[in-house]
Amino acid sequence: MDTFLQQLVNGLTIGSMFALVALGYTMVFGVMKLINFAHGDLVAMAAFIGLTIYTQVLGQANTLFSVLVIFALTTLIIAFAGVLLERIAYRPLRRAPRLSAVVSALGASLVIQNGIMLIWGPRMKIFPESLIPSVTWNLGGVVVSFLQVVILGLSCFLMVALYLYVEKTRAGAAIRASSINQDAAKLMGINVNRIITTIFIIGSALGAVGGLFIALYYRGITFNMGWNYGLYAFVAAIIGGIGNIPGAMVGGMLLGLFNAFIAGYVSSTWADAFTFIMLIIILIFRPTGILGERVAEKV
Question: FRET label pair with 247: which of 18, 41, 57, 289, CA 20 to 30 Å apart?
């Protein structure tokens, strides 16, 4: 029973990070019907930028103010990078065939990944352990760390805040209208370009927070880590129903729990194989994902 509860805590922590990154994929797809393959590399860039701010700007100061500065500056930089990515790689191809945008996304991913390698080097960097207090609690044999509480709590807060923003605000209504039909949204006076910029800002910012959480949790960061975590987040978005914000949250949590239980009861080396087996099974019975809706496409 202790193993089950421990893996439950670990799975929820990992799943919340997957969900944050998956939201970036699902928001862009919901409006633009585009898979932003470069999103995972922005997540990796966030980890390296956060490390650079800590070592070069803050002088390795381990205070609450340092943590807030790292998260704030990294989020702003990655949000700006996301907007720049949309302007350079995606906007010129908005009316082009969908395959052209996919190729552009893959090219942007490689550019960012190799840019990280050229700037920070190919070797693994170690994120500072002392940035977050290493406090743990033993609750009936289940070890819960302060970092896990922070990750899970802040991730849930951000996900709920995003859901309320999209569902309850006027700007959120414009995002939902643009996701249904961009041409009709334009006729209603909605600035679709501004909406697309907004979703890239929000998605990239959430990815930046997810990237910092991944760096703090696993500590070792590499230039190509964006591919692995981006792939997991993409799978989470598909499982939940890509284009559906609650679906990305549910998919991320389920994927994190599934990986944790496979690692705890089977083997961590089989986690990837079982993950994609689960994805295939879900898509067989639910092709649009768990919370995805079947939509008839006009031809």
Answer: 41
